[in-house]
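question for whoever is on the cluster today: can someone run the full assembly for these? four chains, 1372 residues total. i dont have access anymore since they changed the login thing
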Amino acid sequence: MIVIMSRDSSEKEVNEILERLKGLGLSGHLSSGVERAVIGVVGKVYPELKDNLELMPGVEEVIPISRPYKLSSREFQPRDTIVKVGDVSIGGDELVVIAGPCAVETTEQVVSTAKAVKAAGATVFRGGAFKPSTSPYQFRGLGEDGLKMLSEARAETGLPLITEVLTPGDVDLIAKYADIIQVGARNMQNFILLDEVGRTRKPVMLKRGISATIQEWLLSAEYILAQGNRQVILCERGIRTFETYTRNTFDLSAIPIIEKLSHLPIIADPSHGTGKWYLVPPMALAAVAAGADGVMIEVHPNPDMALKDGAQSLTFENFQGLMSKIVLVAAAVGKKVRVPSKV
Amino acid sequence: MIVIMSRDSSEKEVNEILERLKGLGLSGHLSSGVERAVIGVVGKVYPELKDNLELMPGVEEVIPISRPYKLSSREFQPRDTIVKVGDVSIGGDELVVIAGPCAVETTEQVVSTAKAVKAAGATVFRGGAFKPSTSPYQFRGLGEDGLKMLSEARAETGLPLITEVLTPGDVDLIAKYADIIQVGARNMQNFILLDEVGRTRKPVMLKRGISATIQEWLLSAEYILAQGNRQVILCERGIRTFETYTRNTFDLSAIPIIEKLSHLPIIADPSHGTGKWYLVPPMALAAVAAGADGVMIEVHPNPDMALKDGAQSLTFENFQGLMSKIVLVAAAVGKKVRVPSKV
Amino acid sequence: MIVIMSRDSSEKEVNEILERLKGLGLSGHLSSGVERAVIGVVGKVYPELKDNLELMPGVEEVIPISRPYKLSSREFQPRDTIVKVGDVSIGGDELVVIAGPCAVETTEQVVSTAKAVKAAGATVFRGGAFKPSTSPYQFRGLGEDGLKMLSEARAETGLPLITEVLTPGDVDLIAKYADIIQVGARNMQNFILLDEVGRTRKPVMLKRGISATIQEWLLSAEYILAQGNRQVILCERGIRTFETYTRNTFDLSAIPIIEKLSHLPIIADPSHGTGKWYLVPPMALAAVAAGADGVMIEVHPNPDMALKDGAQSLTFENFQGLMSKIVLVAAAVGKKVRVPSKV
Amino acid sequence: MIVIMSRDSSEKEVNEILERLKGLGLSGHLSSGVERAVIGVVGKVYPELKDNLELMPGVEEVIPISRPYKLSSREFQPRDTIVKVGDVSIGGDELVVIAGPCAVETTEQVVSTAKAVKAAGATVFRGGAFKPSTSPYQFRGLGEDGLKMLSEARAETGLPLITEVLTPGDVDLIAKYADIIQVGARNMQNFILLDEVGRTRKPVMLKRGISATIQEWLLSAEYILAQGNRQVILCERGIRTFETYTRNTFDLSAIPIIEKLSHLPIIADPSHGTGKWYLVPPMALAAVAAGADGVMIEVHPNPDMALKDGAQSLTFENFQGLMSKIVLVAAAVGKKVRVPSKV
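^ ran it for u. tokens below:
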């Protein structure tokens, strides 16, 4: 932490800072040759110290020089985290394709979709039984019945299952059915929920909040890691900007940034990232080219009949078409895709 | 709902839309003289229909023409909602001033602050016992011990109490201590929590999410109202934009917009809205001039020792100075402020 | 400027930084007790040095500690700049009200509007003869004919005139007619235009760009000041955010921030700041309460017939109603308004 | 254009709208079965009509149903525009790579860079002689001397040249030296400049403004096209959002959106799009995978000595490494890259 004094600060004010630091068991190192007096804080600081020091007379600004996240940082763990789910590895040199409907509607819908996406090359199946909805009058999911339908789809195809948890009280229920627990964008800063999924020993996929900075996202991952659950997967799904043509602005630069700052795997979700089915294939390919560890794609047997997010869902045929291109782009950037024998 | 066909859509495509609507128990009214074919949908539509119809061939865009919120709208209830808490009325011609520390630290801190803000003219006391923190390594509040300290402050001063709930499992506990339950910005779309506070019969203050549109905010209020709790107060506290000088961009235009769209009272929180104590007084006055039903101000005996948000807290003296100006601006816009006898 | 080394930087890397600084005629002051090595740069740095040093091995981040604007800063000039236009002072204890139509349409329109706004208490008249339009198919203004009509309005009422310049080639023409030259939001970073208006000796009102930070805005003011024109007035008129209900998000916190950082006067434009006529009065009052040196309001005899921005224009009657409230709020915050004798 | 009446509008108010339309030579088609009265406007509307009608009593909202851009739309011209510059085609099945330094510094710098990027596979050379700078104290470019140096680079390598114009008065000068005229992000809504470059017969590359919607961008292209210059190339270079880790948020979804809405070629600039050199390669590959017609990359012999934007510039070696990957990804999505014989 560095304390920058204002240009007209007095020696007395500088001394008061040094005294305050001393009182906190820290010490200050004064550089006075620079444009203005600058105090380097030596010792272990706490986050709120910045606010407190900035209120002291003569202080212009306080700049933290350590990143506030630790367990999620590459400084802390240089080697990549690889999350294993059955025989699927997320975070290594294999590109993972997660696919399935936004919301579970019927057993037939999920089973047929699971079979279709498996045939096309997906290795994890997704589907929501508890759905966050902006309006109380929208479809909110089938609940545990939906989880049972998802289990049938897993039984039929062998694909591991990812599904979303909305609230701490449901974590045990979700953990009973899911192979990967998803924490959605709206819950990225639901800290009690993060604590709770951190206490399970299931892999957790943490989506980026629509207005979360990358640092805040890593701090939310830190909540899960701090509870002892090291199987965290990050998922970029678009941020909110002024542009209204797309539902969100899909921030693909988050992929190489996360790769630089953190050892955690990073998945891209172009379905939510764009909100329009015809933008999903180019943006899925872009995510692969940018180095994502995987993509998550919404697929529905009849998007124009879907109870949720039909506008961003691919048909079986479009998904198959996309997979054939993903294979080529993945190869171009040195990632392996598990190609199903019959495609 | 209006379906706008693309310029080159065929008669067959238009007929398919009309058939689809018929199958849903709706009907379509075709205007073909306009620049392109336009179908007005007659009957009660469901929100997902927009997505579904947009996927049909020949459709350019589907435009909803009803607002998705109902119970919170002024169309539904033209007269203002007035929330009563003890002898305080929120939403009428009295300007409510809510004040207190960000986080509860000690009994002495909350009691002395409650006395000071009451003496200066505040009519509701605020303080957080459960604190949302971006980092797991920051102070997260004193929990129920903090609630007990807040109760002492209420006992000493008679000021009703507002405090924040973070998770559905704590709603009963908070409701036991609080006169008004606060749902924070990060939880504005924690729908399970909204359901739960909607089931209590305590007034709820719902803060706007940092990336929430006004429509989404009203839809979140709708969750609470739909559970039968009609005592909802909205609170603007700043949105996230590109500007980094302030912690958030305090969107004061939300005040007259809410007044136009909804019957619910609207409070402004310049402390979170700006993040800097020296911006709080001018922005509090601005909120009053814009027509807010009240302001919520963070006050701390020693901001530079505060465990949370010291940078945005006023000292007792600064709060008193602000109150003397609030009285004048409130009078200028025709709002009453309860002036304590001894100031 | 402070150079923060990465945690694993070597002594050799630190020495290379020190050498590089020496080669530039600067020196470096090393603090090594802190969490990581930190080098304070002593001497006069150039802005691009930050980029250059950040590319050197072992460097984590380079943090500038001087603000990049000088002439516009309060550090440089502690006393307020007061811009005089005829007998109107902008930046002192008088609240200035600028009013008039968005675009000049006819002589009758501008003359009748000028008379009406003068009668209600406006002290500067506004009107656009050269209009920036998002689309080439929209109305782009009457050009010099419009300037002549504006001059007639001035002749009839004695109100000084503010009008917008769009391009360097028109600066002389505009300067011939205008008492204050307006540089619009879209041109805030049209640096050649800033140079050019900086070479005139007419007061310049510089609007904030819709995506400009406050620092960028002051740097644009710096362009004008650096040419020797010290009569610069800033104008907040809303920034672009995700919220779509308003045309822009009117950032009123800019008012006290500018007052803190700069000696230049600051005006607020709620007409562009909100884009809706019924939001203009509450936001104009809010701006006054926040400490603005003035407000600029669009007024039109028949807003629903206006060739431009009718949706945000007040009728004569609504403007008069607003003025009667502005007088009260201004008084509450200690600002004077020149009240016309006949109102 | 569709006029949506409010729920409680009267028959009289509907009739007044119909009369107003009639007076404008338009007609209205009333659908009254829908949730509320809706009037379809028949005939050729002007953009400002929306604002005007919205001010009439009983009107809730007016929705335009035609896109405001014409010449740039794919509806107007279904086949792709291919811009030819020497033997380079932009917009066809060839991927164009534009490379060079941000700013021209010396003849040696530009000539050596031009040779290096040509050797690696670039087909167009870039370099700035007139530079927009946020601060008046930053480097603003070498002016015409810089243009002469760029010409030498072209003479030595045969690469066509793209360089930026900042102001209408310089258009002729730039057109004399450049093969493609660049209009930068800050000038995207400098309408007088757009008119002026529209009057030349040189290809124009129009960068997206940092806060421009896609629709506004196409409307700016429309200015150039409307002057008769049909050789317009669009360039995505990042938009401003709340995320501060990157200089801008590189909006790659703009690539497939432009391809859908417009026939104009679209180039991606990951150097400005990210602002950090180590993010440039992954994002360049992502842009190619998303279907861009080309990429523009900043390359400098010594980025840590660059006078401008060194932080986002690649070294010769890094650029060569990137090119070898671009070739693979381009092939994967069916685009050709001209591979130099000696690489």
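summary bc i know u wont read the tokens: Chain C has two domains: 2-63, 83-332. The radius of gyration of chain C is 23 Å.
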